[in-house]
Structure formats: C-alpha cells, structure tokens
C-alpha cells in the first residue's frame, strides 16, 4: 500500500503468488511463514526487596535534609496562618486541626543544623499550643 499525499491511499497490485479462489474467499501464500507463539510470563521485578531496603539505609545529603526541614517549617507556618485566618473569620475547621497535628509530627525530624532545629522546635511548640487551644 502506498500513501500519496493528503488525498488518501492508492492500492497497487501485488505480484505475490497469492491465489484467488472463485468462492470469494482468500488463501494465504504457501510460502508464508508462521510466527512462533510464546507463552506469556509474569513481569519480573526490577529490584528485589533487598535492594529497596539497601536504598532506605543510604544516608541522605545534609543539604537535602536541611532543605526538607526548612520546607516542613514553612508548611507549618502556612498552616498557622490559615488557622489564624479561619479563627478571625469565625470558622474553625476540624480538618485544619488534623493538618496541624501532621505538621507537628513532621517537625520532630532533625535537620542536622542546631540553629534550624531550635527554630523548628519553637514552631512545633506553637503548633502544639494551637492544637491544644482548638481542642477546648
């Protein structure tokens, strides 16, 4: 089959030795080879459990750990701002309290930087205070 531009296709006559029957059906060329079929097999895992456990044991870069800690601190401060706006509007969303609890648990992870850990512990204390106030 040949495709000629945007006007569609044109069929060319085949010079193969395919035979036509008078019954309207067709038959395959006697020289045609059959393809070999193979049984389907389950996909293989790229890595075993041992490799995944080994990856978990790799110590992460200190700058990466610090960056993640800063991001967790910013997230907690954003949640405190959202809580303040909600309280000023007169609506205290119970979902917000759950999000604050999650942020407080995230802040417990050490960043490796004593100054940053001090700031994060102060943010954590403020989050815990707000959770206690919301629980009343």
Give a written overview of the molecule.
The chain has four helices and two strands; from the N terminus they run ββαααα. It has a domain at 61-135. The chain has a two-stranded antiparallel sheet with strand order 1-2. The protein has helices spanning 49-56, 62-89, 94-106, 114-135; strands at residues 2-3, 9-10. 52% of the residues lie in helices and 3% in strands. The longest helix is centred in the middle third of the chain and has 28 residues, at 62-89. The protein has 136 residues and is mostly helical.
Report the uncertain regions: none
**3D shape:** elongated
Please describe the biggest sheet, giving its number of strands, its sense, and whether it closes into a barrel: 2 strands, antiparallel
Order of helices and strands: EEHHHH
Task: Provide the structure class.
Answer: mainly alpha
Annotation, overall tally of beta strands: 2
Percent of residues in β-strands = under 5%
Distance between the ends? 78 Å
How is the secondary structure organized here?
Blueprint: E1 2-3, E2 9-10, H1 49-56, H2 62-89, H3 94-106, H4 114-135
Antiparallel strand pairs: 1-2
Helix pairs in contact: 2-3, 2-4, 3-4
List the defining traits of the structure above.
136 residues; mainly alpha; two-stranded antiparallel ribbon; 4 helices; 2 strands; 3% strand; Flagellar assembly regulator FliX; Flagellar_assmbl_FliX_class2
